[in-house]
Structure formats: structure tokens, C-alpha cells
């Protein structure tokens, strides 16, 4: 099955896969070859891709998933491969976001800080999954 992950800026990934698990609005969804045609909303979270007996993880922003059973398209606001996330920078960004949430003078700034905090938590979970997967191999 062919997968294509797109953001407004670029094609993030394009490859043959066995399956993809993504954070749909109402819970996780796994798409395999010959899946029933589907169009669904995605929320921020972690995508797991299985291919060649390996698992790859990406952190995504909200968007859409569409499949016809032969191809899967993810159109998302952002997508970062597990190798693009620097753990030390992530820890720093997470701490800064927590501080900004507490100290934000306006609701708008607090909401922006909360969005950054949510994103950092997703990325932290992604790195934990990657470490767990590497240990179990």
C-alpha cells in the first residue's frame, strides 16, 4: 500500500507500507491494504508506520486521513520524523512552555503556550515509544 504524508510546506514521506496507525478524532485507527474507503479527521498525535518488518514513528499536527484501500494520504498541519526531534531541545521547549502557561498575561498567550506544551508532550511520547521499540528488538 502506498503512503503519502503531506504538510502545507512539503511532502514529508512517500513510500510503500504494510500498515499505518494514526490518531483519529474518535480514537486510533489502523489502515491495512484493501481497507474500506475512508476519509476521517486526525488530531495531534503519533503515527506508527509498519514497513519491511520495522516500525517508524512520526509526530503529526491535526489534519485528515484518506484511503481507497490501495493508497493512504495524510494531509496534516505538521509532521516530524522521529529522527528530526532533538531530545535536549525538546526538554528545553517543554520547560519553557510550562513556564509560559503559568506566566501568560493574556488568554491568547496562554492558549499559544498550551498548544506548544501539547506538542512537546506528543514529541516526548514519540521518543519514549522509539526507545521502547529499540529495547524490545
TrEMBL record:
Compartments, as annotated in UniProt: Cell membrane; Endomembrane system
Function: Produces ATP from ADP in the presence of a proton gradient across the membrane.
Provenance organism: Candidatus Roizmanbacteria bacterium RIFCSPLOWO2_02_FULL_36_11
Gene that this polypeptide is encoded by: atpC
Family annotation (InterPro entries): ATP_synth_F1_dsu/esu (IPR001469), ATP_synth_F1_dsu/esu_N (IPR020546), ATPsynth_dsu/esu_N (IPR036771)
PANTHER family: ATP SYNTHASE DELTA/EPSILON CHAIN, ATP SYNTHASE EPSILON CHAIN, CHLOROPLASTIC
Region listing for Disordered, in residue ranges: 87-110
Domain ATP synthase F1 complex delta/epsilon subunit N-terminal positions: 1-79
Keywords: ATP synthesis, Cell membrane, CF(1), Hydrogen ion transport, Ion transport, Membrane, Transport
Primary localisation category: membrane
HAMAP family cross-referenced by the UniProt entry: ATP_synth_epsil_bac
GO cellular component: endomembrane system; plasma membrane; proton-transporting ATP synthase complex
One Pfam family it belongs to: ATP-synt_DE_N
Listed NCBIfam families: ATP_synt_epsi (TIGR01216)
Record's protein name: ATP synthase epsilon chain
Taxonomic classification: Bacteria, Candidatus Roizmaniibacteriota
Family membership noted in the UniProt record: Belongs to the ATPase epsilon chain family.
UniProt topology in membrane: Peripheral membrane protein
An example Gene Ontology molecular-function term: ATP binding
Amino acid at each position: 500500500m502506498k503512503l503519502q504524508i503531506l504538510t502545507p510546506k512539503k511532502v514529508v514521506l512517500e513510500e510503500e507500507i504494510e500498515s499505518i496507525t494514526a490518531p483519529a478524532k474518535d480514537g486510533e485507527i489502523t489502515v491495512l491494504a484493501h481497507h474500506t474507503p475512508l476519509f476521517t479527521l486526525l488530531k495531534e498525535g503519533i503515527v506508527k508506520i509498519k514497513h519491511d518488518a520495522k516500525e517508524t514513528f512520526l509526530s503529526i499536527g491535526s489534519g485528515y486521513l484518506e484511503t481507497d484501500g490501495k493508497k493512504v494520504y495524510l494531509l496534516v498541519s505538521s509532521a516530524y520524523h522521529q529522527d528530526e526531534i532533538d531530545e535536549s531541545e525538546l526538554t528545553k521547549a517543554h520547560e519553557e512552555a510550562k513556564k509560559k502557561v503559568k506566566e501568560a498575561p493574556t488568554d491568547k498567550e496562554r492558549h499559544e503556550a498550551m498548544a506548544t506544551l501539547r506538542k512537546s508532550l506528543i514529541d516526548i511520547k514519540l521518543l519514549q515509544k522509539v526507545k521502547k521499540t529499540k529495547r524490545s528488538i
